[in-house]
Amino acid sequence: MSSSNLTATVVFATITGNNEAVADILVKQLEEAGVEVEKAEMSQSEPEDLQEKDLAFLVPYTYDEGSLPDEGLDYFDDLKNLDLKNLVYGIAGSGDNFYEGYYCLALDKFEERMQETGAKEAGPLVRINLYPAKRDEDKLATLVDASLEAVKK
Length: 153
Fold this sequence. Notes:
- It contains four helices and six strands.
- It has 153 residues and is α/β, with parallel strands linked by helices.
- Strands 1, 2, 3, 4, 5 and 6 form a six-stranded parallel beta sheet that branches.
- The longest helix has 19 residues, at 134-152.
């Protein structure tokens, strides 16, 4: 399966704009790989739409002491009822490492939920401190590359 036949979605939630920047980087990298990709805000998305895609990238933020984003709660809850065994996913997100033990915890929660759906994990979570830097773009590129490999299997 060539990259040009693949479809992907990048679903994000953001307060500061950092996670939208992460989502934009993922979209650009996927487009450069020839993937047909759409970007959507989590509160404006339906998890069922993932059943139509080859790849999905979830980009949630962590609120307060490890909480999920308020606007992502319904999305998170609705994921649990889905069978996504034909989907390859990656999870990335921005946080503030000032919050040490709570740093990017929403990523872990979304990873657990995606594993419950049967979806295939492309690679390790990408935790980004604040606004994405060049090194973070490299980590995201590694995740995108891994997802493209995983979807061929």
